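Hi there,

I know you've been waiting on this one. I reran it after we fixed the sequence typo, so this is the corrected version. Both the input and the resulting structure follow.
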Amino acid sequence: MTKLEPLKLKRKEFKINYSELLHPDLYGGLPSASRKELPVLKSIKIENIVPIRLVPFHEAYARKDYGCVVHFFIHDRRFFCVLRHPERYLDFFLKCNAVIMPDLSQYSDMSADERYLSAYINRAFARYLQQHGVIVIPNVTWSLPDSYDYSFTGIPQYAPVAINCNGILKHDVSKYLWYRGYEKAISTLHPSLIIRYGTRMPYEHSDISLYFFNERLKKLRYGR
């Protein structure tokens, strides 16, 4: 899930230099801010990725942990290196069980064009991996309601997807935006399975969800 924050709160300043992440030579062109289209991803079969053991990119890469599903539900700084130089990490991802599409931030106080560019980079990188033989689990991300027109197009219907809810629990506006986008995603995509990262939320579709919790937060809370 997108890292949403309420509009009235100021987040720590973190500027994304989009020009170094677009890679038209690798991704087959440049995004169009007027059309706001995103690359299309292929569906995966759940039997190709079980058993599912999620490991954040920086830990998996440091340990060369190939027997896992790599995720990017971490701070952008921890995987900027991948988005800057996708070709350098391709061999690593090819050896892993699977990779969840990146989760480059789409904060609610970004401009509409910035949020679209983050969504484009997430999707373009995922398609680049798929085109080179990596098993990629589509990660359903959204920001404000004006992102729905492009956020859910190009994601396979009736197929496994990932959804994250990190960073929304402390703020009512963030939770509202998450729930609104979540229901839109479910009604549009009809996923067969949701790989859910983060706290289980009330009223979500737990019957089709597999839950994975933030291990770092678990250690902070329970000491193990």
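Quick highlight: Residues 4-11, 217-224 have pLDDT under 50 and may be disordered.

Best,
R. S.
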